């Protein structure tokens, strides 16, 4: 954060589905190496925004620059430089741990010794080396989520987008998941994470609170609490979310 | 390019880990060939004949015994009444009623022309005219035998034109030799097209496709990676089906297998490409099944598997120019039964190649990594 190098720049992003405005003039900057939280109730437009930045969804209008590439014309270059973990678990249940890692590594262009070394590295980081030949379907949810995260990091992207990565997992797994997030952030990877757990907001360097497709607040957790005269992020969020039409 | 290999590797892992897949690949051709090649036949083997014999003489019984001697006929016992016999036809227990009138023997012995009546159940026109033709020829041979018996063979002068028929390519007129190559075409098409289509849509349903779409993989790499495994399976299926057909039905393999498999290889790009195209416009396995089923039914019935495409109306012939199965149905039979060579099937080959390239391009273009 010292360098304040901008890695994601979004200017007046609008996304409409027919008449419905999912993202209403979003403007924000994300700096290299920070953990940037996207908070909001279900349906606030977090997933839409994250999918647009990842090149999975076409924006309606606005200027979007991710890792130095244009989200309209350079999607494949963006994709080569980012990792993405969907809120829906999306590894192959009928493949083993190792087969899943190898497959996605191969798709990202790794092969041979480099791929093999990277698989071993990820397996040992995850402490799953002895389970590498187990089918994904036999793993507990928490393990699956950590594995998804590692697979999204296999090509060492500069930004990782995590869409509600801790949905449905127990508090202990959530904590170890956030340890993984802090670890990659400390190595210089920018982390863009959506969540609706307010305690997780405290782990972010800066957070954005989205209500009805708009950004209602954007600052560090400490500053937000000061501004809204609240004792926790939960209070800040409730204060802002009350204004929502859909709540 | 390597990304394609990783997709192929992954698909094969998943295919062979799926416990229903191997039975589908190996049992389906055997069962289909056994059932269809034996059951779906136009040959008349069991004509149920009801004879109403008003004459009840030696001559009339001779006629009946001629029919009994033929293995095509089953004589249904009938009371001596046309009405009763027609009741049997109504109940679907008789296909034919032969009425021999009183005075049959007398007419025959007095060199008059005796008349018999034939009542044919013609719900199925093709079957009816076949039955009529068989029956007439038996009656004809009977009258001739009487004629010869009376005047002696030496007196017969060959005054009429006789036809010397040579049945080419399928001299024993074996229906299975015609049907097995046709069924093989349907089989490899269904296996290839359905497996490909379902596979891609399944990734949409479970959400794994999103994890692929967020990678920098090129669209053509993904589509080709999805096509190749099922292409290999379908080619294998054709080879397996040919072996089964050879063993069970002794089907002829008169042409070059290299030519047949080259054509099949191009054809399968077309068939599987259309499966991929259907799946890229569908969002669930149910949807793609309905779509694929609809097209397959139309294409199979138009393909000429049962009926001659030459007798189809002009619009149908025009339609068939876009029907992949029409080409493969024709070429498979030509190469296997007739032993046709490349120049014989050149036009079909070109058409299928053009369609295949077009279909594959559509499938690649229609596949979207960004929605």
Structure description:
The complex is a heterodimer of chains A (247) and B (371). By secondary structure, chain A is α/β, with parallel strands linked by helices. Chain A has one domain (6-241): Rossmann fold (3-Layer(aba) Sandwich), CATH 3.40.50.300. Chain A is built from nine helices and ten strands. Chain A has helices spanning 46-53, 75-81, 97-107, 112-125, 141-152, 171-186, 198-201, 221-227, 233-241; strands at 6-17, 20-31, 35-40, 61-66, 69-70, 82-85, 159-163, 190-195, 206-211, 214-219. The longest helix of chain A is centred in the C-terminal third of the chain and has 16 residues, at 171-186. Chain A is globular and about 50 Å long. The two termini of chain A are 35 Å apart. With 371 residues, chain B is mainly alpha-helical. Chain B has two domains: 2-9 and 16-40 and 172-366, no CATH class; 47-153, abc type-2 transporter like fold (3-Layer(aba) Sandwich), CATH 3.40.1710. Helix content of chain B is 67%, strand content 5%. Chain B contains 14 helices and four strands. Chain B has helices at residues 2-17, 21-39, 58-69, 82-90, 104-109, 125-151, 175-206, 208-213, 219-249, 257-281, 285-302, 314-320, 324-338, 342-366, and strands at 47-53, 73-76, 96-100, 117-120. In chain B, helix 2 packs across helix 9. Chain B is elongated and about 95 Å long. Chain B starts with a helix and ends in a 5-residue tail after the last helix. The model of chain B has no long low-confidence stretch (mean pLDDT 89). Classes of the chains: A alpha/beta (247), B mainly alpha (371). The interface between A and B is medium-sized, with 31 and 26 residues.
The helix-strand sequence of chain B is HHEHEHEHEHHHHHHHHH
Q: Give the count of helical stretches of chain A.
A: 9
Largest interface: A-B, 31 and 26 residues
Averaged pLDDT of chain B? 89
Structural features:
heterodimer; A: 247 residues; Rossmann fold; six-stranded mixed sheet; four-stranded antiparallel sheet; 9 helices; 10 strands; B: 371 residues; mainly alpha; abc type-2 transporter like fold; 2 domains; 14 helices; elongated
